[in-house]
Design goal:
11 helices
Amino acid sequence: MTKLDELLEQIYRKHVYIQTHNFPDPDAIASAYGLQQLLKYRGIEADICYKGKIDRYNTDKLREIMGIELLDVDKLSSVLEEEDEVILVDAQKGNSNIIDITGDEIICIDHHPLNEKFDYRFSDIRPEIGACASIIASYFFENQIPMDEKTATTLTFGIRMDTMNLSRGVSKMDVEMIYRMFDLCDDEVIHVLQNSNLYFEDLMAYSEAISSIEVYGNISFADTGKNCPQALIASVSDFMLALVTVSFSVVYSRNSEGMKISVRSEKKALDAGKIVARALEGIGSGGGHATMAGGFVPFAGSDREAQLLIADMKERFCTVIGEYEKEYKN
């Protein structure tokens, strides 16, 4: 039996919901859409749902060009029932980046580190894979299911964005899926999407980050200003790694609920997911991949108190990173 066969055996209804992580990115949307098409091919209807908003231009452009219908879970509250079956993609139950909606989370397909607290009827969780869309794409080829141009283009863009064009956290499967979909996808659409990255307002976040950046050894810290979208914080964090002396980037933004944090690492000795989890222990939560991760610290104090929190966060990260570097050398 293939992974898709195992998955299908655990779906008992003719309609399911596919839930992405909050504020979905191209990989999450591509994975959800690809799975939706696979289920449709096998006679199962599915709606894609998410929490938050789509706050990056190329992500929203992907949805628009491909005509992908996404439902806000807040508008589904009166429709969802406890018996509804939910499939999680690009996220896992219990993680801070996904809301617990009404329904039974029966299946999980993800590429983030395993959260062992929860069980599913079926799970396909592969942290070694660079993009969740690669896992979904493999289901098509393993089961010889036809893939149309729209699906191939969407999945290809999802893989490219989550691996920074196959330059970050990439695996052999990611490369193989890009290769196998090469002749199936629309190159012009991919080009348009990859070159449509910023709103004019986004430049202000880069400006804030550049003006606030502090570098301690190989670690950089930067503030994108208040209420910066999560996806933009992540983009700025990637941008900071372009500095020659920086191999570990921490970018943060305060909103009404607390401090959102994005972390990037390009050194094997510095696992971003483990470091952010340890650094924020006791004041917040965090986790993710070895090369990219995120965190959140609940906070509702004054601006003065916010500055004290930021200073504490910086000290925590520097201490934990110092410990990791010592452990690696030994």
